[in-house]
Structures are given as C-alpha cells and as structure tokens.
Amino acid sequence: MNKSQLQVEAIHNGTVIDHIPAGQGIKILQLFGLVQTHEKITVGLNLPSKALGAKDIIKVENTRLTAAQANQLALFAPDATVNLIEDFEVVEKLQLQLPEQVEGVFSCPNSNCISHNEPVSSKFRVRAVSGQVRFRCNYCEKSFHRDLMAV
Amino acid sequence: MANPLYQKHVISISDFTRAELELVIDTAVMLKTHPRPELLKHKVVASCFFEASTRTRLSFETAVHRLGGAVIGFSDSGSTSLAKKGETLADSVRIISSYSDAFVMRHPQEGAARLAAEYSSVPVINAGDGSNQHPTQTLLDLFTIYETQGTLQGLTVAFVGDLKYGRTVHSLTQALSLFGCKFYFIAPQALAMPDYLCDELTEKGINFEFRDSMEEVMDELDILYMTRVQKERFDETEYVHVASKYVLTPQVLENAKDSLKVLHPLPRIDEITVDVDDTPYAYYFEQAENGVYARQALLALVLNESL
C-alpha cells in the first residue's frame, strides 16, 4: 500500500498501534493516557481489515510505547501490532506478551470486593487458560473473563 | 529450627504448602494430647469480628485462653465506633495491630483480610472474608480428616449440597488436592461446583466426578462432607424437590465403609437427620471441637519461632 492509499495519515516519528479490535481504540487511548501527551495523534476507527473484518488504529507522534506498555496492550488487543517509527520507516516491532500482573487498570467486577471501598489500587494476576485470558483478583481471589473487566 | 509459619499472615488456604499444612496438623495433634498453656503467655491477640460469627469467634478466643494469652476485640462492628465514624479498614488495622501481637479478623467483604495484611504490623489471621476464604475452617477440617483416617493421602471424599457458594468446600478441595485425593461432587445443578475451581482441579490433574446421589458412591467413600442447601436459593416447590435428594439419613449410609466419617461445617439444619448423630459415622460435633485445637496450633506457630 503506498502512502496515498493509507487510511490514516503516516507519521514521521512515533508509534503505530495497528490491528486493534474495532471498538477498543478509544479505550486504549485512555488507558495509556496518550491524549495527555499533547502530541499529534491520529485515530482510525472501524477501518476495513482483511484479518479482523474491522479494526482500529492509533498513530502517536514523538512517543515510544515501552515494552511494559505493549504488554498491557495485549490485555485489550492480543493481536495488535506495535511499530516504532523513525523518519517514516518502521525501525522496531514490539512483541506483545501478556503481563503476569496488572495493577490499577481494571476495577474488580466483584461488587463485594474490598478493593472498592479502601485506599488501594486494584491488582490482578493474569493467566491464559485454554487460550482465554483470566484475571484473578489479588484481594477477593475471584477469577474473571476478560469481557467482565471494566477500566 | 524456626517454623515456616512464624510471623506469617494466614489469609488463604492456597498460600499454604503441603509441608505447612502438615505442620499445623501435627501441632494440633500435639496440643490435643499434651496441652501447652504457656505458648501465648504475655501475648495479646486482637479478635475483631466486623460481622458476627459466634462459633468461630468463641473457638478462636478459647484457643487463645488455653494457650495463656489475652484477648481484646469486638464481636460485631455494629457495637463499635468504627462503623459509625466511617474510618477505613486500612486505618483501623494500623491502629489495632499496634495494640496486639496477632490480628484475627472476620469481615463481610471478600479480600478484607488480604488488604488488612498490607497495613498490619502483626500477623493477620483470616477468620472469614465474605464468601472468599475461611482458612482455619479448612485447617480444622484437615485435622479432623487426619484424626479419623490416620492420613490425608489418597482418600475418596464426597462433597454434598451447596457446592457453588460453599467456601468451606472450595478451600477444602484446594487443600486436599495437595494430597492426591479423589472427589465426588453431588449437588443440584443450580449449586454445582464453580467452573473456575473445576478448571483448577483439572489443571492439577485431580480426579473428580459429578454424581447425582450419595448412594451411588457410598461404598467408596472415606469422608462424606455435607453442606446445607439454602432455602432462599430456590422457590418453595423446587426446594422441597431438591432438598430431599440431599438429606442424609441412616438408610443412605447403609453401604458405607466402617471407617467412613460424616463431616459438616455446621450449623446443620435438616440436611442430616438427627438419628444420624447416633451412628458411628457422625463426626461433625467432634469436628467443631477440633476447631479449637487447629486454631491453637495456628496461633502457637504464628507467635512462636519454635515450639
């Protein structure tokens, strides 16, 4: 695909997060506080995708996603690709791996979990069970499917 | 040699290794046969029950007294100023732990004990946090099973009744899975063992099966662990139908092995008829009594580097 065919404008330097499942793009922008960077961000939502049917894409100028951030991204978009761009060229592709723990991102779906009432960050142990991501709350010890987790 | 539980928090049965469980059981055996009324001398144990649980509280407090310790605390947070003033649990724990050598707590919310452990300056012992964990119940169950069978290894155990909400069942299966036991789960569909726990057992390679009735497996069982099917989980007609299938009578025990023991975390309502009490299989009242020895063992280990 040449640049004239790009669905979202190319960036000079920064990070491109592609192949995000449609509907997750806005959540990811919020999660990583990307809006607060004050850098130029271009976002494509519900773009056609051969693999996914529809996808979201995020391009952030002058910002490099860290490996830890990329791992957190895997919680929302396990098949996303993260390309670091320099001078319009891809200089590095980050591999996404599920983090072992996630802290302060999701609130516990168990309404009777003590983490809702006390001055603590939520903490979950992340595990893949038969291809499904499961979150086990550090406090109430309940396990939850990804779809139940609210940011 | 220092014991591995010295100054440790006791929050969840899944935090224990097999060796630690065996240490608690061996210590309970020792304290039942040879009382040691000096093990908690000069120690103060906070017994803080943010919700009422009379049996568990009295059992803990008896354990402290029998070891020569002193108890401070409350039996229901409604009778304290904590709830009225709106203090966080974290702050309450900081203060109370500064008055005591160990902090026994019961709380209606899941995860409360784990959170308390983050703020306490002394070991926290979970006496029940919502529907989550009640590790000392599991320790007394294990001690009782060991006492009646002479081993925990390779037993066949049936769990009957409310397996969905019964935290005692959840914790006990987790603990017994360290000892190569086989499980039968006998419950109404609506109260079946949760999937995530079955997944955990499968991952560990534990042999378990679902069955419809106790009679089907009675002759194989070493332990029959009964729990209460709560009326409020069903409408009236359905309850009558369901409950009758999960009531233990002497007739149901007809083909039991001589060594079988029936356990129940109590209170028993009508899921075990009173005439079972007179059979040699009934062991639930001894089980409740064993709660004191198991809690003595745990407190003694947590507060003494060596015994």
UniProtKB/TrEMBL annotation, chain A:
GO biological process: 'de novo' pyrimidine nucleobase biosynthetic process; pyrimidine nucleotide biosynthetic process
Gene Ontology molecular function: metal ion binding; transferase activity
Pfam families xrefs: PyrI (PF01948), PyrI_C (PF02748)
Aspartate carbamoyltransferase regulatory subunit C-terminal domain boundaries: 101-147
Record bears the keyword Membrane: no
Cofactor binding mode and count: Binds 1 zinc ion per subunit.
Domain Aspartate carbamoyltransferase regulatory subunit N-terminal: 6-96
Listed SUPFAM superfamilies: Aspartate carbamoyltransferase, Regulatory-chain, C-terminal domain (SSF57825), Aspartate carbamoyltransferase, Regulatory-chain, N-terminal domain (SSF54893)
Positions bound to Zn(2+): 108, 113, 137, 140
GO cellular component terms, A-Z: aspartate carbamoyltransferase complex
Required cofactor names: Zn(2+)
Keywords assigned: Metal-binding, Pyrimidine biosynthesis, Transferase, Zinc
Family indicated by similarity: Belongs to the PyrI family.
Known role: Involved in allosteric regulation of aspartate carbamoyltransferase.
Subunit structure: Contains catalytic and regulatory chains.
Protein's name according to its UniProt entry: Aspartate carbamoyltransferase regulatory chain
This protein's encoding gene: pyrI
From TrEMBL, chain B:
A UniProt-annotated Pfam family: OTCace_N
GO CC annotation terms, alphabetical: cytosol
Record-annotated membrane-spanning stretches: none
Catalytic activity line of the entry: carbamoyl phosphate + L-aspartate = N-carbamoyl-L-aspartate + phosphate + H(+)
Enzyme's top EC category: transferase
Gene Ontology biological process terms in this record: 'de novo' pyrimidine nucleobase biosynthetic process; 'de novo' UMP biosynthetic process; amino acid metabolic process
Aspartate/ornithine carbamoyltransferase carbamoyl-P binding domain residues: 8-147
Any one Gene Ontology molecular-function term assigned to this protein's record: aspartate carbamoyltransferase activity
EC number: 2.1.3.2
Family matches, as Gene3D superfamilies: Aspartate/ornithine carbamoyltransferase
Residues annotated for carbamoyl phosphate binding in this entry: 55-56, 106, 134, 137, 266-267
Start and end residues of each Aspartate/ornithine carbamoyltransferase Asp/Orn-binding domain: 153-301
InterPro entries: Asp/Orn_carbamoyltranf_P-bd (IPR006132), Asp/Orn_carbamoylTrfase (IPR006130), Asp/Orn_carbamoylTrfase_sf (IPR036901), Asp_carbamoyltransf (IPR002082), Asp_carbamoyltransf_Asp/Orn-bd (IPR006131)
This protein's pathway: Pyrimidine metabolism; UMP biosynthesis via de novo pathway; (S)-dihydroorotate from bicarbonate: step 2/3
Keyword annotations: Pyrimidine biosynthesis, Transferase
SUPFAM superfamilies documented for this protein: Aspartate/ornithine carbamoyltransferase
Family (UniProt): Belongs to the aspartate/ornithine carbamoyltransferase superfamily. ATCase family.
Function per UniProt: Catalyzes the condensation of carbamoyl phosphate and aspartate to form carbamoyl aspartate and inorganic phosphate, the committed step in the de novo pyrimidine nucleotide biosynthesis pathway.
HAMAP family: Asp_carb_tr
Subunit comment: Heterododecamer (2C3:3R2) of six catalytic PyrB chains organized as two trimers (C3), and six regulatory PyrI chains organized as three dimers (R2).
Protein name as catalogued: Aspartate carbamoyltransferase
Organism: Oceanimonas doudoroffii
